[in-house]
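Anyone opening a protein record will find just a pair of labelled lines. The record below illustrates this layout.
***
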Amino acid sequence: MAPDGHRTALARLEYELTLFSRHYLAAVQHRADQQLDRSAYLILTRLEAGEPLSLKELSDAFRLDLSTINRQVAAMRRHGLVERVPDPDGALARKIRATRRGLDMLAADRSQSTSGLAKVVEEWAGADVEELSHLVQRFNESIERLQHNPWPRPHQPSEPAIKPGNSPNSP
């Protein structure tokens, strides 16, 4: 691609990502049955995808101050969404693990989110949904590589990241 064409494509991508974040965040915030706030949804998603994490590990994963993560996790503990558990490796620091209640609320919110996405792409060909899923995953993985901050993914690469009408965790 010519340098001017590349700059134009990057400018268009930046603009569309701005709109994407606006549309997505607005849709999530105005969902009537949304149970979790954004930070709880993200933290539970991270905990669901891997082992229990210390506050420091969560802070590093989210690139947030330890005090911010501590405050968010404390609120989640008060609502029974997460719990502190001993470090499986025997270290003194306690780890944070999602509770069954937290995972159930995450699954319900994710199901709503997935249903909303299915409505947006209902007229798309399945291959187009798969291609978008693949490209967004590739984009995210490029960011993770540049930041040296990989994010675990619960689905297999051969599976679609989004199955319209279904939660990614449903069988």
Observations:
- Confidence is low (pLDDT under 50) at residues 156-171.
- Strands lie at 82-85, 95-98.
- The two ends are 42 Å apart (CA to CA).
